[in-house]
Every structure is written in C-alpha cells, then in structure tokens.
C-alpha cells in the first residue's frame, strides 16, 4: 500500500481555514491578567513583526490568536507598501468573521521602513517575529537575542554556511539567557508527526536505514521587473530567485521534509552528493536558481536519505516523507506505520491540529507563564545547513562534506544592505543571471577528497 498521497495531508491554507472557528473562540475569551503569567506592567506580551509578506502576516495573526494577552505594537519591512498591505490583512475579518483588530496597536510612529527598520522595531518588543527573506535571518536573530527578546522565526534560518554558523552561535547565547526560540518547522508541532515519532522512539520501526523526502510542485510566484527599479529593489521584490535572499527552493521549501528525516533519525548527514539543473524554467525571471534537485545524503552510520524537489508546472506533485526502518516504514503524510502491507499504527486524522497555530499557542503560553521551554534554533540551523549542502552538491556536482561546509566561512551576502548597494549577483547585458554549472562550479576542493574516500 502506498500511503504517501497528498489527500491525507492538510495544507497550510486548509489549516488556516479549518482553524478559524477555533481562533474565534480564542479571541472571544477574556485576556489573562492573573499573577503567574507574563509579568510586564500590564501583563501584555508585546510583539513586533519583522518582515511583512504573506508568511509574516500569517504568523502575526496566529500570534494574536493565541490564548494570551498579546499585542502587535510595531511592524518593520524594507518596503512601506508591504507593511500597509500586511496590516490591512491582519486586522481584517476572515471568512468566518474572526478578527484580531483589538489586539493591534500599530501606529504610524511604529511602522519602520528600510534595511535598518529591524533595529528600530526590536526594542519595542517582548517577542520578535522574524519573517523576512531568510538571507536576513542571522543578523535579525542576533539583534533580537542581543536585546533579550523571545523569538519566533521562520525557516530556513540562513542561506549560506556563514549564516548558519552565526545562528548556531546566537542559539547558544539564547540558551544562556533562557530566551524561548521557536522555528517555523511546524511539523514538530503537528499532532500526527508527534504521535509517529513517539512510536519511532519506542522502537516500533526498529533502526532507521533510509528515508525518502519530497517537495515536488509547480513552483511559486514571479514578480516582473518594474520600470525604474534598481537592481537591489528588483531582487528584493523577486527574492525567491536569488540565493543570497532565498537559498534556492531546496533550502526555502524542501527544508521541511529534510528536517523531518533529521528529526526522526535524531542526527544530521555528514555529506551530500547529487544532481540538479534548470531544465524547464530557463527564463531570466527565474534568477539564478535551479528548477530541480536530487540529493543523496549520508549519515555517519550509513543511513541514506534520498531527497528530491522540483518546481516545474505540469509535473507530478508530492510533498511528503517516508522513513524506512528494519521493522516497519513510516508514511508521514498518511500518519501511518506499516510492515509488509500490514498497518502497525494509524493516526486518527480527526485529531489533527493546525501546527502553524499550535507553535504560537505553545510559545506564547510558555512566555506568559515565565517558562523557558523552546530552543529550536540549533536544530533549525542544522537542518538549514543540511539543505544548503544539498544545494552546493547539486550546483557543483561534487561531494560536499558537512564539517568542511560549516567551517568554510562561505558567505553569499552583499557587502552592504542598501537600495543603492550592489547585490552579490548581477545580470548580463541581456538580463540573464549566471547559473551554476555542475562540473565547473567549485566550492571546497577539500570536500571532494573527503567524499571520495
């Protein structure tokens, strides 16, 4: 039986729709002000949103739907129009009439615009939501922890090894300061996955020997170049197609599935090899990223994860994970564990939750109670690096060693963050960006030797 079909998986959109009634109940409840919860002057947990795109808008709304006295007090983005559209969406009623407008106290004075906007917004917060393009995540995370703020940050947490190294350093500081950090790898907060991993930890599937993880889909949006845009503004608006901002879709999206394998395995790969390219999406509007990747990851004990992701319209779509053990196989999307066609365990899908809401519910409940409970940043960084070494492997056609990459100092960030600055990659006279060529693109000659042993 193939139990990995997408019909059993709740999408982000359906989670949001199905959770609206629950959200309405939460909004209708009185705000907590009793002793024993978060202790500010008025027991309000002040939230600022850094990055006001679709994911930031959703995350802010989910924070405000949590069963705590949460207020959105400031917003920051490189673009003012993003702040305005986000605020409109956050305060609007949804299809079921649910609103969080009474929990928003953003004023003109607390809307901050520009590359340095985060520096002005973070001091106003108890909790910082970081949802800009991931290339900015390391510097934003560092500033939030430096200022003693709890953090919710979206995945991935970097786009290059240097950024991962920075996040790992800051994660250690967050632990020292006992600051809660949740990373938006929401499967860790999903009931079906939590029940599956309990059984894996209890030995139901024996020793994990391999895994297959997928994010194959049509792809995402494209924003056309507008007259008068600087190159920096164009890339910022069209951030998904530039590695310094996005990391390629193997990092930005497929990290979810890669992370599940790391989680179930309770380990991270030691090396990666693979193939990829631009077979269909070859237009200049797709920047510098590939349209497909296939990566073979090796763990220290010989376990192999086969990873595939694709952004090509009209092809077979699959977003799922299969974990194979000596005594059974986990079909994550179906919430089942099977052996030889026999079902060993099946999660009751009627008990599925909205993990995007749950991650905020649990984070804000811990903060309100004064508890230090969440330290997701280290895993978020290591799963991000797993995806990054996959990109480096497909771009170069070489074996990429984990330790070599992590300690390489490789950064693809610009020298300066400003609209008049030069981005790390530029188009040629015809508007096309340089594309990695397997066999010619090089990263670490040392890693080739390490992988070739």
Structure at a glance:
With 453 residues, the chain is an alpha/beta fold.
Description:
With 453 residues, this protein is α/β, with parallel strands linked by helices. It is 33% helix and 18% strand. Strand 9 (292-298) and strand 10 form a beta hairpin.
Shape: globular
Low-confidence spans: 1-39, 447-453
The CATH homologous superfamily name of the largest domain equals Dihydrodipicolinate Reductase, domain 2
Number of strands: 15
Distance between the terminal alpha carbons, to the nearest Å?
A: 38 Å
Radius of gyration: 22 Å
What is the averaged pLDDT score?
91
Q: For the record, what CATH class of the largest domain applies?
A: Alpha Beta
Quaternary organisation of the protein chains: single chain
Q: Do you know the CATH architecture of the largest domain?
A: 2-Layer Sandwich
Q: Classify the beta-strand content into a percent band.
A: 15-25%
Kindly list the characteristics that best describe this protein.
single chain, 453 residues, alpha/beta, Rossmann fold, Dihydrodipicolinate Reductase, domain 2, 9-stranded mixed β-sheet, 6-stranded parallel β-sheet, 15 helices, 15 strands, disordered N terminus, disordered C terminus
Please give the structural blueprint.
Elements: H1 12-18, H2 20-28, E1 45-50, H3 54-64, E2 70-77, H4 80-91, E3 111-113, H5 117-121, E4 127-130, H6 137-146, E5 150-153, H7 161-177, E6 181-183, H8 191-201, E7 208-217, H9 231-237, H10 249-252, H11 255-265, E8 271-277, E9 292-298, E10 304-311, E11 318-325, E12 329-331, E13 336-339, E14 342-346, H12 355-368, H13 377-396, E15 400-401, H14 402-406, H15 445-451
Parallel strand pairs: 1-2, 1-4, 2-3, 4-5, 5-6, 7-10
Antiparallel strand pairs: 7-11, 8-9, 8-15, 9-10, 11-12, 12-13, 13-14
Helix pairs in contact: 3-4, 6-7, 7-13, 11-13
């Amino acid at each position: 039986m193939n139990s990995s079909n997408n019909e059993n998986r709740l999408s982000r959109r359906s989670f949001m729709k199905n959770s609206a009634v629950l959200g309405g109940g939460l909004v209708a409840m009185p705000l907590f002000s009793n002793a024993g919860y978060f202790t500010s002057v008025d027991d309000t947990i002040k939230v600022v949103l850094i990055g006001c795109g679709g994911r930031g808008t959703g995350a802010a709304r989910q924070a405000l739907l949590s069963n705590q006295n949460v207020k959105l007090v400031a917003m920051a983005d490189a673009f003012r129009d993003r702040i305005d559209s986000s605020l409109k969406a956050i305060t609007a009623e949804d299809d079921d009439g649910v609103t969080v407008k009474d929990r928003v106290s953003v004023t003109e004075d607390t809307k901050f615009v520009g590359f340095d906007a985060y520096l002005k917004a973070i001091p106003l917060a108890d909790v910082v939501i970081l949802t800009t393009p991931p290339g900015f995540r390391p510097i934003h995370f560092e500033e939030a922890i430096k200022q003693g703020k709890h953090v919710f940050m979206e995945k991935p947490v970097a786009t290059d090894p240097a950024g991962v190294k920075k996040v790992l350093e800051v994660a250690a500081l967050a632990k020292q300061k006992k600051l809660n950090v949740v990373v938006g790898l929401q499967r860790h907060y999903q009931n079906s996955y939590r029940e599956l991993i309990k059984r894996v930890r209890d030995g139901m599937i024996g020793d994990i020997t391999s895994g297959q993880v997928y994010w194959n889909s049509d792809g995402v949006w494209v924003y056309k170049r507008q007259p008068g845009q600087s190159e920096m503004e164009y890339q910022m608006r069209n951030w998904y197609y530039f590695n310094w901002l996005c990391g390629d879709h193997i990092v930005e999206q497929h990290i979810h599935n890669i992370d599940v394998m790391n989680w179930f395995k309770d380990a991270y790969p030691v090396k990666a090899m693979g193939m990829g390219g631009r077979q269909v999406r070859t237009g200049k509007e797709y920047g510098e990223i590939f349209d497909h990747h296939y990566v073979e990851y090796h763990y220290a004990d010989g376990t192999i994860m086969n990873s595939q992701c694709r952004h090509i319209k009209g092809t077979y779509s699959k977003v799922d994970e299969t974990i194979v053990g000596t005594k059974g196989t986990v079909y994550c999307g179906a919430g089942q564990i099977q052996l030889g066609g026999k079902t060993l365990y099946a999660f009751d899908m009627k008990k599925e939750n909205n993990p995007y809401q749950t991650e905020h519910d649990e984070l804000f409940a811990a903060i309100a109670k004064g508890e230090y409970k969440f330290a997701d940043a280290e895993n978020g960084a290591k799963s991000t690096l797993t995806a990054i070494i996959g990109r480096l492997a497909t771009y170069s056609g070489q074996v990429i060693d984990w330790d070599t990459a992590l300690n390489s100092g490789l950064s693809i960030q610009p020298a300066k963050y400003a609209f008049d600055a030069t981005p790390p990659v530029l188009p040629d006279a015809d508007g096309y960006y340089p594309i990695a060529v397997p066999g010619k693109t090089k990263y670490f000659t040392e890693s080739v030797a390490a992988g070739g042993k």
